Amino acid sequence: MRCGTYSSEWFFSKILHCLRTCPEVFDAAHLWVECADWVPAVLTGTEAPERLVVGICAAGHKAMYNDDWGGYPDAEFLSQLDPKLGVLRSRLRKKARAIDQAVGGLTADWAKRTGLPSGIPVAVGAFDAHLGGVGSGIAPGTLVKIIGTSTCDMMVMPLAEKSPDIPGLCGIVNGSILPGHYGLEAGQSAVGDIFNWFVNYLQPLGKKNGSHAALSAAASKLAPGESGLLGLDWNNGNRTILVDQQLTGLLLGQNPLHNAGRNLPSPGRGDRGLAR
After folding, report:
1. Which of 103, 34, 44, 87 is nearest to 65 (CA)?
2. pLDDT tens across 147-177, in order?
3. Among candidates 165, 176, 190, 189, which has minimal Cα distance to 243?
């Protein structure tokens, strides 16, 4: 992340938002847990707060955890935002772990539900995109781009290499993607969301025919930049590198001749003001 900047999408921001808007919920909560950590805990019967195992992926990229700094930001720092955050700090887990370690064994109940062997090791959790990077064969020198509701651009580098200071990244975290490597994450906070907005709200091919597949087929017939449109994809803010969720999107170059996936008439045939 940029020095001194922390996203409203992330762990402590969400907790602070709850504290300010629903203090009774905050006061009733003993601990706050990422879904990526909760699911392995449930599968292994280790969901009690004192037994919970948290992953370095979520802790490092979203909660500013770093072993060299003593784990999460200290209570004095968090108390400057709100004293109750400082108190919560003492209940957070002391150590975050990578995915090459097991949370525990699959319980008999979940073995029956899933059809997997009882007691089979359940790995420490991580975010969907980061595990998608593992499944895609991420390795040093390879960029993996995971596209979903948002998008994540990820790379890894061996711990033996000196990590550069790259402004705007969503953290450079030891072991967050592959054990023994730094995980580097960047991305954007609206991608699939924007596609859905086009299909479900703008409906450029109509409600009946305007599916994702139909729009993709129409767009595939255009060369990059051929429509003359320029889109700024900050519809849900900017995650990298500005880390500002209050920014908004913009579409430039639009005129009444634009439609779903068709070429504009060539300039010089009465089509005044068309940018190519």
Report:
1. 34
2. 888 889 999 999 999 877 777 788 899 999 9
3. 189
Q: How far apart are CA 194 and CA 81, in angstroms?
A: 33
Residue pair 68/126 in contact by the 8 Å Cβ criterion: no
Token pair 């499944």 in the structure block, residue: 135
Local structure of 147: helix, strand or coil: strand
pTM: 0.83
d(CA 11, CA 186): 17
**What's the structural domain count of the chain?**
2
Pairwise CA distance, residues 260 & 214, whole Å: 10
Tell me: the pLDDT tens digits for 174-198?
Answer: 999 999 999 999 988 888 888 888 8
| CATH code of the domain covering residue 85 | 3.30.420.40
Burial of 219 per CB tally in 10 Å (0-12, 13-18, 19+)? exposed
Domain containing residue 150? 128-255
Peptide bond just before 99 cis, omega within 30 deg: no
